[in-house]
Amino acid sequence: MQLIVVTGLSGSGKSIALNQLEDSGFYCIDNLPAPFLEQVVTHLQAIGRDRIAVALDSRSDLSMEDLQKCFTTLAQRGVDMRALCLTASNDALVQRYSETRRQHPLSQKPDSAPGTLVEAIEKEREMLDPFLPFCHLIDTTGLLPNTLRYWVRKFADAKEDSLILTFESFGFKRGIPLASDLVFDVRCLPNPYWEEELRPYTGKDKPIIEYLQKYPDVEEMVNDIDAFVTKWLPKYRAQNRHYLTVSIGCTGGQHRSVYIAETLAKRFKERYDGIVLRHRTLDALGK
């Protein structure tokens, strides 16, 4: 049985994620009170549901202690449990609330309502902080809904492993993804962008691959990142980490970082099951 708990900041795209999981065959429940999670999963498991997704957020009376206890109990029953947390920058969230004209959930609690929208967002961030080490984090800043749906589908389809390892390429000119655990800057490598005939291609295309493979520095960079992640991955596992995102950045996020992320993901797939590969810039552009 597979259980995905979806949480994150209000306005970060949880509804889109839950809708995608429903389209992928999950039995989905939105805004379930956290104390009922174990009971609901037990009931659904008893009636033959083998893929369940539950959305929990600041309205769900979420407690780290209760959630850990529930996860431990369910793990003993052999449930494949994953936690997905969505986040976004303050500016992105403020813009989304401005467009929808909806009220932030925390603003609806008169006993502790923050004064402004930004204060409500920051308070919700603090509430979610204890859960982040146990979640696969997706930064939805600048993401189109179709891209988010695609990333959620890849996360759900990743093979079960004690730690899901994500390689994500990005462009520094658009900022470092908030979901990054480890960030590697590959802007020092030869840039295919300056070869006019190569500019239209991406790091997944043969001309770019052949171009970058000519340079020993590129291979050395890949080997160094591979060695670093391989060396320290057991330490992250030992700290009970279930998710680790390795972000690879170049200037535009279309050539060097894509090639290196692709190469690393291919290497690690030969050693681990839980590998996720995504390209922030390319996925946003539909390439």
Automatic annotation (TrEMBL):
Keywords linked to the UniProt accession: ATP-binding, GTP-binding, Nucleotide-binding
The keyword Nucleus appears for this protein: no
Location of the RapZ C-terminal domain: 164-282
UniProt superkingdom: Bacteria
Domain RapZ-like N-terminal: residue ranges: 1-155
Residues annotated for ATP binding in this entry: 8-15
InterPro entries (alphabetical): P-loop_NTPase, RapZ-like, RapZ-like_N, RapZ_C
An annotated Gene Ontology molecular function: GTP binding
Binding site for GTP: 57-60
The keyword Oxidoreductase is annotated on this UniProt entry: no
SUPFAM superfamilies: P-loop containing nucleoside triphosphate hydrolases
Family annotation (NCBIfam families): PRK05416.1
HAMAP family xrefs: RapZ_like (MF_00636)
Name of this chain's protein: RNase adaptor protein RapZ
